[in-house]
Amino acid sequence: MVDECRDLLHALLEARAPSGEPLLQGEMRERAGLCAEELAGSRERAAIDARFAGLGRLAGAVVHELMNPVAVLQADLELLPSRIGDLGVDGTALLAGSRAGIERISAALSALRTLIREEPPGPVEGDARRAAEAAVRLVSLRLSPLVRIDADLREVPKVPCGDGTLGQVVLHLLMRSLDAMGVEGGPIRLQCREDAGGVAIEVEHGGGVAADDLQLGFSLAQYLVERAGGQLESLPREGGGARYVVALPAARG
Fold first, then answer.
1. Is residue 123 part of a domain?
2. Which of 235, 160, 166, 154 is nearest to 190 (CA)?
3. Based on the domain organization, do 21 and 55 belong to the same domain?
4. Tens digits of per-residue pLDDT, 168-199?
């Protein structure tokens, strides 16, 4: 239907009267052109949404398959301490290491599940702090020893954006910052706070310029924030680097 409306508008823009003059002129022609551009943008955004929804469903299936064996392993490890003495082996350190590893896997899967959770159609509410925590947890899995994330995540009002969507935005900004840090390393600052009755999330780094292949990701992040009634800006940072600011209104009610 979107394609049909777009083609009809293009046909009207190209149509001419018997005198040879364009059928649409002045303000009507300008408005028709703007509508055609908006429809083209709607089609692109719909394609992006559909693609990411498919990826989300796939990742959701992977998470579901992994969570069950992790739960079984956790239950088995709880039983081992009472039985390992019968084997004459000191497995305390082994059990501790296994338990820590499983807890890390479980935490990562929980964070991933937060970011890929399918959101219902219509108005949604999200927890910005929870979304940011999930993004930090996943990014921490690939941090080098030279990079650290200094997070100040405070309790804030609910926002009109789902945890999954907002978490993906924060994840992109953190990954963008990590890419800009390069081999030099340093801190990446993340803050979530209440601001002017709404919520502000800031990501700041002192690295260089992010790679060009991340520009599309930033545009998508801007679109997701704007769709929720907010704004995402990339601002220069004194002394080099960049500061990304997400501003969202508080959810109604």
1. no
2. 154
3. yes
4. 889 889 888 888 887 677 899 999 999 988 99
